[in-house]
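Minutes, methods subgroup
Present: GH (chair), OT, SY

1. OT presented the first of two proteins processed in the latest run. Sequence and structure tokens recorded below as shown on screen.
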Amino acid sequence: MAADGLQVWKPPKTEGFGVDGAGAVDRNKTDMKPTSAFHMAGLVQSSNITKPGVIQGDLLMLELTDVTRRFGTNIAVDSVSLSIPEGQMVGIIGRSGAGKSTLLRMINRLTGVSGGVISHYGRPVSTLTGRELRSWQRDCAMIFQQFNLVPRLDVVSNVLHGTLNMRSTFATMFNLFPREDILRAIAILERLGVAENAPKRAEALSGGQQQRVAIARALMQSPKLILADEPIASLDPLNAQIVMDALKDINEQEGITVVTNLHTLDTARGYCERIIGMAAGKVVFDGKPDELTTEAVRAIYGAGADGEEISESMTSTSLHVRGRPADIKAKVTASGVALESI
């Protein structure tokens, strides 16, 4: 079924895939070897990539001014003020209940702001409604700890759902997507090392695979900003490393700003150029990884029930070596385990 250049995505019966004129998908018929799969897929244009740390004109990409969120008498986020330039990889750390997730949800506007202002290049987004709010949520992609995929849908359909707020109700109801979007979704999955799973139901994938599909869905939105809420909290160390490598690679190669909540100090130190520490809803640290001293860790995490200092080893995920997704794929394949299975 097709209408206005749209076609129904149907999982292929063959193992390989790409898209031919009849809507069948055959990977061997699709060129998947561009300099960057993102460029081939139309995710970004070379002229639009901004080097990390570059500020557009005199305005910072994202500014929070005295942002507060109250739930009844409880203050989850307390007068937080932050400025984030374009292209940074920012890690937010802190104990459970420190306000990290609420802060990201307010930026994306999944949660309303009780007070203060959130601005994107000087434009307030904390008061947007209707179409303007949907546009902001498209520009500000969210990745969740529990993946938030549709379990019974195939992987490509889940990725294509990243374009739903750009499509008509008719196209959404009948699962109609332009051919170029299907190709683009496959290219992004290829980039993240999970393309072989495109025809499978999302529920059949491992946790690490599902999180990479969630990242692919976010990239389908062509976001200016990616917010990742505890993206590795449910993963084992190897899958956690693969996911963090993917986010770092997206940040460095595509210039997309990434702000991620993390429980682990070693992961924050290894992947983020800037670390923000939160405690009791307030920002108590904001600096470079090498500035995260024992005193700063104490301010963020406090002490244990017996008064002893919190040991960094208690938050370790054993991610000692960071590599690119291609490097990880080579290492895992050499060990006899397929990347697609983890």
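2. SY then presented the second protein from the same run.
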Amino acid sequence: MATRSRRLSVPVTELEHSAFCTTEDDLPSKPLAEEMVVNVRWQQIPSDYLHYTAEELDIRIGAARKKLGNSVTILGHHYQREEVIKYADFQGDSFLLSREAGSRPEADYIIFCGVHFMAETACILAADHQRVILPNITAGCSMADMAPMEDVDDAWADLEEVMGTGGIVPITYMNSIAGIKALCGRNGGTVCTSSNAKPVLEWAFEQGDRVLFLPDQHLGRNTALEMGIQLDEMVVWNPFRQLGGSTAEQLRKAKMILWQGHCSVHTRFTVGQINAARALHPDINIVVHPECPMETVQAADMVGSTEYIREMVNSAPSGSKWGVGTEVSLVNRLAINNPDKTVFCLDPVTCPCSTMYRIHPAYLLWMLDGLLEGKVNNEITVPDDVKRDSKTALERMLSLR
């Protein structure tokens, strides 16, 4: 048996989640030196960059981009702050951006304004000559960190021992490290996004009777329920307990084995927040992300991916009202872009993703200046064997569309 009972540990990224939370409606732009007083891990940066104002950064970033021309593509995830995403050549979710990177072969450098697993995926899908850069190396993801490779390898070994080889199909959410994507690629599994989780799971159940779903238990549970799988056909794999906390018989009877991981942002959204929004606005539309807990999803009017949420709000009639359960930077952008509608975040506390928020414009400028000097800072690489197997999993997903 590979899984060992061991002491509970919590990823540092999870502990840091609330670092930037505030009761103020806005998160004003500040020089990096002022933001660094927040007690999270910051990558050290040359002191020249610490005190630039937003205006100075804007001028310097614009000048650097003009000199670098088409040799650089900047990708911006929807959860990035406004003062960063305005520089992006492409905006989107993690997989859409990674695919866009590959569509710009003239760009030798891809600067990914997102988090570490996104930059890894871009590296896997980019052309061989392209180099991927993450502006702040401490921009990780608490969900991805909840499924470290050693724990997943142990779990997979145990599940194969219980089920036999081929007795379970591994599916990982895009929000996972490259090694997990590679494990899925090697073992007949694939990757899913929040947009295509249902068809991917339907495919998986055509391949076998059981699925190991990593690393977000809520997306897995909500999607399985939508497919008609019952709660008593699901178990949660706790990596800190032997056999994930279940018996061998319970594992064999389960259809869905859900890794015990979650998104620190989306688990903040509650039924109470939905009820409060409806009390204030009886005609409101509630739309939430499927990473939210089951009870929140069931209380909402609509549930869908980041792209789905954007489409619903942007295409809604003038005068409509929207309470949105996803990351506040995106919600604020939707409100700005839809001034004829009422759009607000369900969480009354302004609480951005603390790792996304660490991509400050000063870090972006540092990356651009490095390229002008012939230096590549913060390059993200993936070992060739991991890249190969991860790409197999990603291509398997694409073939399902």
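Chair's summary of item 2: The longest strand covers residues 72-77.
Next meeting: continue with the remaining queue.
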